[in-house]
Amino acid sequence: MLIYLRLLKESFNFAINALRNNKLRTFLSLLGVTIGIFSIIAVLAAVDSLDKEIKGSLSSLDNSTIILMRFSFGPTEVPRWKREQFPDMSYDEFQFLSRNLPDLDAISFAMNVPRETLKAGDKTATNVDIAAITDGYYEIEALQIEDGRFFNEAESVSGSPVVVLGHALANNLFGDLDPIGKEVRLYGRKFSVIGVLKKEGANLFGNSKDEIVFLPVNIVRRIYGDNNKATFPQIVLKPRAGVDNAEFVAVLTQQLRNYRGLKPDEIDNFFVNQLQGFADLIDNITGQMNFIGLIISGFSLLVGGFGIANIMFVSVKERTNLIGIQKSLGAKNRFILFQFLFEAVILAVIGGLIGLFLVFVISLLASQFTGDFDFVLSPWNMFLGTAVSAVIGLISGIVPAITASKLDPVEAIRTGM
């Protein structure tokens, strides 16, 4: 065991000497490995970061959450012309499902409406996202209230002029003042602030709930009407924990079909979008991105492997005399073999570590310039980069190492002289 540790030390010294004595040649040879590892780990880190950010943005919603609308989250076989004829979800359908759908934990009717200007005294917030929802949405997304409360069922049904503000929006409008009980103007009307959400931070999809104003959907329905194309109604549902999702969706679909009077031979004129399906779609997309990135990066690694093989062949040529002396003193073939293999692996790992360092530096810079989006260089990706480097060195160095181990000692000494 000690002899192999000593062998590893000598191989490391030879690799460092190669870097010192032939800086340009060694640098050019390692460049391929460095670029290859940089490409692979950069792709993996970018995809992991994107995946984490997307799922983090959806983390407040349970994967069992279902969204009924006339659009589909993913690809569909229904032709576009037919989808455009689908009716919007209605408030009456929301009430019907809330009364008749079994195993229902929470349900909410929501309308996507254009952004508005919000005023409080002499302060104005423009381009504010409006979340027009019913009270059930509070349970679906597990909203976190920092101060005050969320509107209740009675306020939701009656369409009371009350609002809940996002954390940043409340700060912009009221500063250090307590916003609870204060009035804001929206749609030319006065609304009373009854709650403020906890700070969330920005996410991948733009402004987070920090910049949103929540208000009862029924007051927005009175303003826009139920047939306004500027709105986009949807029904958000959450089944009880432990309920079979497929069975719940089947019952939901059948009840809505019955309510809309669809015949057995007619297709659904609505889409049941499951958040789990959206998460699976994200996983599929990120998997494909990883695969494509790995293929492209593989070409860089192939070039890097040839570079390592080249420098090892040169190393064997330069140390032919030394190999002959080692063999004449009793060094076995496997000793010579391992010596050059270790050297190739060490050189490749050095190139890989440089690539990892570059990814680390760029990820730090990117995180600084992109605000709340964090690029993640996980320990697994660092281990993977090092392991791939070692494998490339092993593969690239095997032929030069075998060549060196099979040299005849007498011929090697004579050639070296």
From TrEMBL:
Cellular component terms (Gene Ontology): plasma membrane
Q: Which InterPro entries match?
A: ABC3_permease_C, MacB_PCD, Macrolide_Exporter_MacB
- Membrane topology, record value: Multi-pass membrane protein
Q: Where in the cell is it found?
A: Cell membrane
| Keyword list, A-Z | Cell membrane, Membrane, Transmembrane, Transmembrane helix
> Ranges for the ABC3 transporter permease C-terminal domain?
295-409
Primary place of residence? membrane
Residues passing through the membrane, by range: 27-47, 291-314, 335-362, 382-404
Q: Which GO terms describe its molecular function?
A: transmembrane transporter activity
Any Pfam family the entry gives? FtsX
Q: Which family does it belong to?
A: Belongs to the ABC-4 integral membrane protein family.
Designated name of the protein:
FtsX-like permease family protein
Species the sequence originates in: Antarcticibacterium arcticum
